[in-house]
Queue: 2 jobs
Job 1
Amino acid sequence: MANIEIQIPTELSLTKKQKDALQKAFQKQLVETLGANSAAIAKSKLMVVDVRAKSKNEVV
Amino acid sequence: MCLVTALTVADFIDPDLIVDAHVNTGAQLGVLTLAALLRDRGHAPVVVNLDDLFFEFIGRSDRRRATPADGGPQHLGEKTTRSKSFFAFVAAQLRPGDFDVFGLSSICSSYPLTLRLANAIKRSNPLCTIVGGGPQASVADVATLRAFPSVDIIVRGEADDTFPTLLHHLAHPDAAWQRLGGITFRRGDEIVRNPNAPVVENLDRLPLPAFDLDSRLRQRGGVHLEIGRGCPFACTFCSTNDFFRRNFRLKSPARMVADMSAIHKEYGLRYFSLVHDMYTIDRKEVMAFCEAMLASGEGLTWGCSARTDCIDDELLALMARAGCTGIFFGIETGSQRLQQVINKQLDLAEAKERIACADRHGINTTVALIVGFPEETRDDLRDTIHFFVDSLRYDHVEPQCSLLAPLAATPIYEQHRDHLIFDDLFSDMSHQSWQQDPVEAALIKAHPAVFPNFYAIPMAHLDRREVKDVVDFVTYLATWFRWLPVVLLQDSGDLLLVFERWRRWRAERSPVDTDEQIGWTPYHSHRRFHTDLLEFVHACYLPEMARANAAVRAVARAEQATIHQPQPASAEATDRLTDSTVAYCADGLCVVDVEVDYKELIECLRNRTDLDAIGSRNTTIVFSRNEATLNVWQLPALSAALLRLCDGHRTVGEVVRECAALGMDVDGIPPEKVCLFGLMQLKEDGFIRFSSSTLIWDSEAAGETTAAYAVLPQGSNTQQPWPVSVGES
């Protein structure tokens, strides 16, 4: 017997109060944003070279 | 006439990485300014940029492909061979016979290469004149001329006036050039050192550097621009105060703004690394520049160097408004005692306030530290690494720590020059690669007075090898992890104790991988360090040393999770939500359960409050990528429970039924509706996606990622932090 696909209604017929309660229940909190400069991003790259601080002389 | 720049690219393994590294190197302002001055006098100088040649060289190499399977690039053991080949490659490009005069610029780290090139040029064209210049030749002039007969003349210090005049005289068959100030030269067997030439007092009279000769300028994220010279301070380790005669000068604000505007219009660049060892000494001039920048309305951004005792919160605020996005603070040591010994004399409490202020204004701030001073004790070393790690509490601050290198002509070198030792612990201030080229290593050993920066000053109280290990440890700890170094410091109260325990723990394990086994990549930059360190935290630190156990474990668990890449899977994307739709976690999403309030924990680490006060409760955090950033979210329990069910196998129908069974209840709303609302919310947040069928994982690609085998320390190799994004106009 073929599976019967049940379309789920996108409108859940919620009252405003219910909607507010659900939004609160599923509300996520931003802890922090790690920028592109941060290690968390850097470590996802194929980075091997060591180009740390050289002498200040280099820009003379 | 041919001008050859000094090589500033420090290491080279992966061509793509060199592109990144190359973005913020290759300033070569001295050479490009000289080129502009020579053009004004009717010359047509050819500029050979060794950084560009380096880049071209590695681009041609077919040995550069990484083999992720072994965790590192292929044939790293041939690094020295490559370096040797690079020398031959450059020598072949120079066309010695085409020029009568070669001007070779220099910096300490690549001086051996520069002098090898001088020898090669002279062998091919014995009649040419080789003139050395730049920072290293200036301070090692006599020793260089004694040891390297291929070099004929050295122009010391600022060459803007001396070099064009020298060229003019060399074109005439007399010896008038020998009377020029600021040069050192050979007369028979004698080395003659003429008195110093005067410095350029009015820098506004210098032309804009010949940026058109920098073939890669448009590809850079910004441009270095000299705005002044001379630092009046006298730190014992610093060589630049000698080069510029400690004579503080600035270009006028009007000239600075005009130059920036002209470069922006010509090349489309919007970021300017304003080069001056210590810009903010003259507060009025800085304010005038900031006001001129604001008045220009062009919105250009810039960075500079400063001392924390020559800047205040009000000035920082103005600078930020006027486009300052980067600042370099040379703190040098976190030990108040050593601040006096090295004659830096910063008040470290004040320094911390300025760093915090720069961070508040969103200015990317480099905090530069040095260890390895001869008088340094364990307490001093601990204070410095604590300063380093404390800096990590700020989002916009990047600390960097270097091993002391005795630069020629510095007070610290003069004091210890008779006691220098040669070991294999090169400072990153000096080295050209992780391994020194053997030919150049022989030169270094034979001529300590020419290459003192490759030598070391013995430490009275500490083992230099251990100190180097500490530097690598904290540097890569900060590179691999965001909060782990901070929590380890805050929890232990003494990061050196943690380091020492880590060393013993590692030594007790057997066997320790050899360099060869980890692909010749230095251990700390290899992912093995990352995994070992986490294992140490779980197996040793937590049971033996931890006080705030849950907090440390939470950070370790979170940061362990972020390194793992998701297994790739095939999905049939759909936006239709039906009973048979399959929900799955979005690519790149990382979900971690911890036992503390993670948001509270991070706030505690930022503000250095009591770790023991953190609330204990099960929390789910999610790391989600958003282009160049990584957002860290703390999920409510319902979202977390739902997200766990979105595994790429369960259908929405099954998820709803399981939620109902779990009794997912909110204010009496039916569980089905709660569940569907939650799924839609997770979809809207970008945490989950829908597929019309069960996901199929690519078994060949499954398993731990092999992508991130090594990392780059988050340090700037310029005086100021380079902008994050490569912004064109």
Job 2
Amino acid sequence: MIRIDAVLFKPAGILVDEHGVPFEDAPPAMAELASLGVKAIEVSALSEVELRRAVADAALAPDRVICLTDTEQGIRAAKAAGLRPVLMMNDPDDAMRLTALDPFGGVVSLHELPDFIRFVHRQSPESR
Amino acid sequence: MKQVSVYRPTTIEEAQALLTRHGGEAAVYAGGTDVLIRLKNGLTKAPAFLVDIKHIGNLRYIKEDGDGGVRIGALTKLSELEDSPLLAKKYPMLVKAIGMISSPELRNASTIGGDLLQEVWCQYLRGGYSCWRNGGYLCYGAIGDNSYYHSAMGGRLCYAVYPGDAATGLMPFDATVTLATPAGGKTLTVEQLVPGDMMVDGRIQSHVVRYNEILTEVAIPAPKTNVRTSFEKLRPRGVWDFAMASLALGLEMQGTTISDARVVFGGIAGKPYRERDVEGLLKGKTLAADLAGEILPRALVNAAPLKYNAMKIEMAKGLLASGLASLSA
């Protein structure tokens, strides 16, 4: 069974647009994650070094951390750091191309992320 | 195709015990036009044990109840519904909807229970992609070719449309279903049965039926004498194809005034989409040829089309216009 303890992301493109304006789905999604006991951790860059440092600082197990990203670099860095990359599928064509890198999963909107984690948590060999 | 074992219980209780014993590894097998295709498609969630319920007596019937309604056993073939004089007399719109499902050959095999509970027909799922319904955590339909099998009304992880026509055709009649559950019988409206993508027993599905529950009966209340109904379906070909968009319309009339309405779209969302805003708008209106002009701009305002399927919304609105026009004639 897979457990997710934290979601790690670079705010631009995930929480806020390129002008720093928050996406409307971000605050409710972050609140719901908190209610699930899942930490939201911001990083300044999606590099392997930065991701490893953030995970170590928070004393997390890497395979229990999702890295939200919409870039090839982000997916590769997350995998290199042992995290689970989840595609933020902002652009359909880009996202389809990036599925070739075999991300752990993908969401269309941040709004879906709590359900994503609930679903992952509920998977078990007994489930249909 | 993976190896499967088939059980042939003769009672509901026996079937439930088998389903309970095997948990998520078992599935109900009736007409087979969905579950066998899931096996052939090689889906990771396809069952290893089939519980063939065709040998259970008293699940295949169409009969009038004491209140003038009709009860249909879950194992009744779609072709039997299509050919039923009783249904044709009481619910011609439903018979039309059933007659537009798939092909004559498949209607001879498919059951009403199976049509209501069928898996989605997204080409990515059926093609073996590791999506939400097939062991993965991503919807390929949301980012790939979503012109046909995907929702234009938003989604919840999975963006496939609910594919059945029977539910769409039953909802204007306020039909209900009965489930046999380990705790006894349970009655739900069809709308409650297929509420859109749900996490049930650790999997995503369009209906609420748990792994050890069995749909046994559909009940349709007595038709009201002052109701006008219509069903239309748009699809690429005249047979076999699923709906790009469909509409089941029911208008309760007092003279020329609409006193109540049911507006249910199929093929555009993860569930039969009951457009309650339009139902509210129609109440109190005079049914006339120009009514659509007033209603259409306020229909499906919550649409959220994906990259390639905005035309589904235009199709649905076109069906609403033609449905209102045909009922006003």
